[in-house]
Amino acid sequence: MIFGGKLIALTLAIILFIGTHSTDTKAVTFKDYEAAVADNHNVTIKGLSMGGDGENFNARLYKPPGNGPFPTLVALHGAGGIFPYQLWWAKEISKNGFVVLFVDSYCTRGHLCDHDTDDSDPNRGEIMRNWDVVSMRQRMVDAMGAYAFLVSKPYVKKNQIGLIGWSWGGTAALFAQKFSTRTNLPHGGFKGTIAFYPNLKYVTENPQWEGSGPIEQPSLILYGKDDTLESVESYEELLEENDSGSISVIGFKGAVRKFDELGDARTKEHPSVGEFEKAFHEPSFKAAVKRVNEFLSKNFK
């Protein structure tokens, strides 16, 4: 397994609050990432042909102890696939009484299958540069397939299913909200969205974005203000749209891409956007944990 490249030898730990009302603290390390990668169940989900390719796909399931029913999140990865730090989020959210189903839109389509490497993995770099080999539309259809899977399970609260996504996964989650009136999902559809750095400045002028409906469910967007792939202006425009849902946009000063992933500062390059920085930012990460827990407690519990 590869966790943080050379950083695996470091004793990097972060003290943060876990749980909305808890006063306990937990040191988070790369060992916790390893545990999150291992501590889940693989499930196969039937693909939807209406609007999608109909291909079955895999997902990682995190379920709290007990019979439930539990509120649930469908998690969506970005261009580089499912990362260990994202699975850490899934596991921690599950500890707070949520089912989390992390969709893998790549593996069964013949792309990246690894979940235990960081972005020094060349296979991740290859798929990142060709991220749209699985289209935004297909990512949305996969989210709906995951929803159909979940509403059939007795341990899921069918009227309390939301979305969480990172980068293009966050974009897909927001698109799913904007198209919610057209998808006609049972039990009211997705009840809320958490989107980490969802590339909004690259999608606001997309005809599909402009031609879709409002975001009608509560949404939390978290991004770094120093992330060159984001822009304050795009989020200001989103808030000016007066969507009927409650949208909260939190920009963290001094934070860049992947502020919520343990690791040193590094520069990446994409043929479409050029160079951009990634780095862990402890104050933003701790604030994000607090915001996510508050959002989930308010809108799902």
Uncertain regions spanning at least 5 consecutive residues: 1-25
Count the beta strands.
12
Helix content: 25-40%
Rg on CA atoms, Å: 18 Å
Overall residue-averaged pLDDT value: 88
| Overall shape | globular
Helix/strand structural class:
alpha/beta
SSE order, one letter for each helix or strand: EEHEEEHEHHEHHEHEHEEEH
Spatial strand arrangement across the major sheet: 3-4-6-5-7-8-9-10
What fraction strand? 15-25%
Q: Provide a count of the helices.
A: 9
Largest sheet at a glance? 8 strands, mixed
Description:
The protein has helices at residues 30-38, 84-95, 122-129, 136-150, 168-178, 180-183, 207-210, 232-240, 282-300, and strands at residues 14-17, 25-28, 41-45, 57-62, 70-76, 99-104, 156-166, 193-196, 219-224, 247-252, 266-270, 274-278. With 301 residues, it is of the alpha/beta class. It has an eight-stranded mixed beta sheet, sandwiched between helices. It has a two-stranded antiparallel sheet with strand order 1-2. Mean pLDDT is 88; it is low at 1-25.
